[in-house]
Design goal:
The protein is an alpha/beta fold. It has 14 helices and nine strands.
C-alpha cells in the first residue's frame, strides 16, 4: 500500500517574515553605502601639497578612490536588487501558501466525498459509522471554503480551552505503580527492528490491559548504549459522566487532559515507573502510543523537554490527535494517521510540517470508524512505512537507529492505577 508522507527531512520551510526582515537589513545596508560610504568617496577634494611633490602617487590614490566608489556603487545596486527580490519572494510565498491551504482540502474532499456519499441511502447515523470518510470529506470541504481560515484560527484554541475546562470536572488523583511479573511481551521475538515491531508491543498491551493503565518499559541495550521504549495503549474506560469517576487511569478524563496539553495521573505514573526502573536523565527515551496513548506520549514529551528530568528523543503515535502539542525540534515525531480515522482530527489542528515531524497517512482496515482506528489497521500501516524508501522515512530510521539496532531487550510491565 502507498504511504503519503508530510514533513520530515525533505521539508522545505520558508518564513515570509524572515525574508522581509532580511530585505529590511539589505535596505539599511544600501542606505549606509549610499549616504556614508559613497558620499565620502565621491566628495570633491582640492589637491594638496603632496600632489605637487608626488603627482604619480596622487594619481594612484585618486584611481583607487574611483575604483572603491565603483565597487560601492555595484554593492549598492546589488543590495537594492536583492532586497526587492526578497520582498517579492515573501509575497509570492504568502500567496502560494494561501492557494495551497485553500486548494489542498478541496482536492482531498473531491477524492473522499464520492465514496462517502454512496452511503446516503443508509441513513445519517449509519453513514457516519459505515464510512467515516464522509466526515473527512466534509471537514476538508469546509477547510477549502471561506470558513476554512476562520476555523483554522479559532478551532484549535477553542478545543484546548474547552477540553481543559471539561477535564477539571474529572478527578485526577495520584498514581500507583505496580509491576506485573507474568504479563506477555514481545521479548521472545528479540529487540524491535521496525515501526511495526514498536507498535506490536502496544497491541500486546491493549490485548492484555489487565483493567487499564498497563504500560511497558522496554529496556534496550546495544552498541549505542541503553535506550528505553515506553509503550502506552488507548482508552479503556469511556466514563463520559464526571460524577461517576473511574478507577482506571486510561479514561475519558485523561483524554481531555491530554487534548488540553495538561499532565494527568497516567503521565505522572509513567514518570514514576521510569524512576523506579532506574532510567537516568541522559538515557534516550522513545514514547510510543496508540490513540490516547499517543496523546499522553506527546504531552509527556513536551513536559519532560521543559523540566529535563528525562530525555525524550522520539515520539511515535498511531491515530492520535497531537497537532496542538508544542514539541521542540530536539524530539523526532512520527505520526501515523489512517485515512478515514476521525480520531486524529479531533483536535481541529493539522500536524506541523517540520523537519523533525513526519505525518504518515496510511490506508488500512474495513470501512468503519472502529475499523479505521483499530490498532491492527495501524500495524499494517506501520509495515507500509517500514517498506517506504522516501528520504524523510530513511532519515527517521537513521535517527532512531539506536532503538532499532539493540542486541538485547528486557520489558518491564507495570499497571498504573489511581489513588
Amino acid at each position: 500500500m502507498t504511504v503519503v508522507l508530510r514533513g520530515g527531512a525533505d521539508t522545505i520551510a520558508v518564513d515570509p517574515e524572515q525574508l522581509n526582515a532580511l530585505a529590511g537589513r539589505l535596505r539599511q545596508l544600501a542606505r549606509f553605502v549610499e549616504h556614508d560610504l559613497l558620499a565620502r568617496l565621491l566628495r570633491p577634494r582640492p589637491p594638496g601639497p603632496a600632489a605637487a611633490v608626488d603627482p604619480f602617487g596622487a594619481g594612484e590614490v585618486a584611481a583607487r578612490v574611483a575604483w572603491a566608489a565603483a565597487q560601492a556603487s555595484i554593492l549598492l545596486g546589488g543590495c537594492l536588487s536583492l532586497s526587492a527580490s526578497l520582498g517579492l519572494a515573501a509575497q509570492a510565498y504568502r500567496e502560494a501558501d494561501s492557494v495551497l491551504a485553500r486548494g489542498r482540502p478541496l482536492v482531498r474532499a473531491g477524492r473522499h466525498l464520492p465514496a462517502a456519499l454512496g452511503q446516503l441511502g443508509h441513513g445519517p447515523s449509519a453513514m457516519l459509522v459505515a464510512d467515516p470518510e464522509l466526515i473527512d470529506g466534509a471537514d476538508e470541504l469546509i477547510d477549502g471554503l471561506t470558513l476554512g481560515p476562520v476555523l483554522a484560527a479559532v478551532l484549535p484554541n477553542a478545543t484546548a480551552v474547552t477540553s481543559g475546562r471539561l477535564a477539571s470536572l474529572y478527578r485526577d488523583g495520584s498514581p500507583t505503580v505496580q509491576r506485573r511479573e507474568t504479563a506477555p511481551t514481545a521479548d521472545p521475538a528479540g529487540p524491535p527492528r521496525s515501526v511495526s515491531a514498536l507498535l506490536g508491543e502496544v497491541a500486546i498491551r491493549e490485548d492484555d490491559d489487565a483493567g487499564g493503565g498497563a504500560v511497558d518499559l522496554r529496556l534496550l541495550d546495544g552498541p549505542a548504549g541503553r535506550r528505553v521504549v515506553v509503550d502506552i495503549g488507548g482508552t479503556t474506560s469511556w466514563n463520559l459522566d464526571p460524577l461517576r469517576p473511574s478507577s482506571q487511569v486510561s479514561d475519558f478524563g485523561t483524554n481531555l487532559r491530554a487534548l488540553a496539553g495538561q499532565p494527568s495521573v497516567l503521565s505522572r505514573g509513567i514518570r514514576q515507573a521510569l524512576r523506579t526502573a532506574g532510567v537516568g536523565p541522559q538515557v534516550p527515551i522513545m514514547l510510543v502510543g496508540h490513540s490516547q496513548g499517543g496523546m499522553v506520549a506527546a504531552e509527556l514529551a513536551g513536559e519532560l523537554a521543559r523540566d529535563h528530568e528525562f530525555t525524550v528523543t522520539h515520539v511515535v503515535t498511531a491515530g492520535s490527535p497531537i497537532g496542538l502539542d508544542r514539541l521542540p525540534s530536539s524530539i523526532s515525531v512520527l505520526s501515523l494517521e489512517n485515512r478515514g480515522d476521525i480520531v486524529p482530527e479531533l483536535d481541529g489542528a493539522d500536524n506541523p510540517d517540520r523537519a523533525n515531524w513526519i505525518t504518515a497517512t496510511v490506508d488500512h482496515g474495513d470501512r468503519t470508524a472502529l475499523g479505521r482506528h483499530a490498532i491492527g489497521s495501524y500495524l499494517a500501516g506501520a509495515a507500509d512505512f517500514d517498506r517506504d524508501r522516501d528520504q524523510a522515512a530513511d532519515h527517521w530510521r537513521s535517527g532512531a537507529q539506536g532503538f532499532l539496532e539493540a542486541t538485547s531487550v528486557r520489558t518491564v510491565v507495570v499497571r498504573i492505577g489511581r489513588r
